[in-house]
Every structure is written in structure tokens, then in C-alpha cells.
Write a structure and sequence with these properties.
By secondary structure, this protein is α/β, with parallel strands linked by helices. It has a single domain, classed as HUPs (Rossmann fold). Strands 3-2-1-4-5-6 form a 6-stranded parallel β-sheet. The termini are far apart.
Length: 197
């Protein structure tokens, strides 16, 4: 895991990044700025239980591509989940928080992940363990209104204007961040479809 100092605020941005693209960088940059994070851990996962392994590029390639497109020194590309033997977010969060008890973590995800968030293993436990920042993505702007996660934890929504305080709030707490959006998607890039950024 990247080095941190007690009291830091750290965003956890996990995904298969298959391949990583400028849309991911935009989400990371928005989270760093709007949440006022000290670091953002760009966590390249060994696999995704909700996606086919056949279409997954080798982990080393996804790490190298991620490092090539992330220029901000506060973004730390890492693949420590492989050494943990974990592929489920809830378990990974348990390990991260146990090893870093003095750090304020926020789970960062694109709004396009909200539609399947309730299919993640122990998803309610995830929401109760760390604050969550959901960053707007094309076609998913209204997802926070209809998603099961947003409806279940409606009472825990933090106004976007208070996003900078999210990392220090007790979970459950979540916010939806509007801002610039990129139409790039890993699915389209793998399929060789032309997509305007």
C-alpha cells in the first residue's frame, strides 16, 4: 500500500481499468479536487467478479497503462489487492482500514457503477464502512436518484457543496459530484468503437 501519514484523507478508486483512459483520470482529478484529498489510490484489481476474465488484459499491462496516463503525483497507482488475495471490495476495505486506522478514506466511483452496486458482495456493509463519492458519468447523471444504493442510504446523502468534508464524516455518508464528463469507456475502447472524449 502507498505510504501515508496519520490524519491524511485518501480516496480509494478501484477498478479493472481494462484499459484505463482519460475518463478515469477525469474522475480521479475531480475527486482529488472536490474532496480535498491528500492522495488517491488508483487500485487496479486483479479481476472483477461481475465481469468476464476472458476479456481482462494482464494485470501488469493495466498497471503500466494506468501509470502512463496519471501525471498527478497525488495519484498512486497500485495493485496491492493481488497480494491480499482479494477481489471483493468489502474484504479489501477491511484490510485497508485495519492497516491504516489513522487515515480518513473515501470510496470513489463513477456514477455508471451505481446501477450494479447493489450486486456487489456485502454492498450495504461497504456503504456503512467508508464514505462514498460518486462522480458523474455520461448517461448516469440520474442514477443516484433511482439506484438501490441511493434509495437505501438516502438519509446519509451529503450535499455536494459539503464534499470537502466527506472524508471526515462517519459512514454511511455519500455525495454525488457533478462536473465535466468524458464519454470514453473501457468497453467501447476494447470494442474498437470511436468515442469522442
Amino acid at each position: 500500500m502507498p505510504h501515508v501519514e496519520p490524519g491524511m484523507t485518501v480516496g480509494l478508486f478501484g477498478g479493472s481499468f481494462n484499459p484505463p483512459h482519460d475518463g478515469h483520470v477525469l474522475v480521479a482529478d475531480i475527486a482529488l479536487r472536490r474532496l480535498r484529498l491528500d492522495q488517491l489510490w488508483w487500485m487496479v484489481t486483479p479481476g472483477n467478479p461481475l465481469k468476464s476474465r476472458r476479456e481482462l488484459a494482464p494485470l501488469a499491462d493495466r498497471i503500466a497503462l494506468s501509470e502512463a496516463i496519471t501525471e498527478n503525483p497525488r495519484i498512486k497507482v497500485t495493485a496491492f489487492e493481488q497480494s491480499l488475495g482479494q477481489s471483493y471490495t468489502a474484504r479489501t476495505l477491511e484490510k485497508i482500514r485495519a492497516r491504516n486506522p489513522a487515515i480518513h478514506f473515501v470510496w470513489v466511483m463513477g456514477a455508471d457503477n451505481l446501477k450494479t452496486f447493489d450486486r456487489w458482495q456485502r454492498w450495504q456493509e461497504i456503504a456503512r464502512s467508508v464514505p462514498i463519492a460518486i462522480v458523474d458519468r455520461p448517461g448516469a447523471t440520474l442514477a443516484y436518484l433511482s439506484s438501490k444504493m441511493a434509495q437505501t442510504f438516502d438519509y446519509a446523502r451529503v450535499d455536494e457543496e459539503d464534499a470537502a468534508l466527506l472524508a471526515r464524516r462517519p459512514a454511511p455518508a455519500w455525495t454525488f459530484l457533478h462536473g465535466p464528463r468524458s464519454r470514453l469507456s473501457s468497453t467501447a475502447l476494447r470494442a474498437g468503437k470511436p468515442v469522442r472524449g
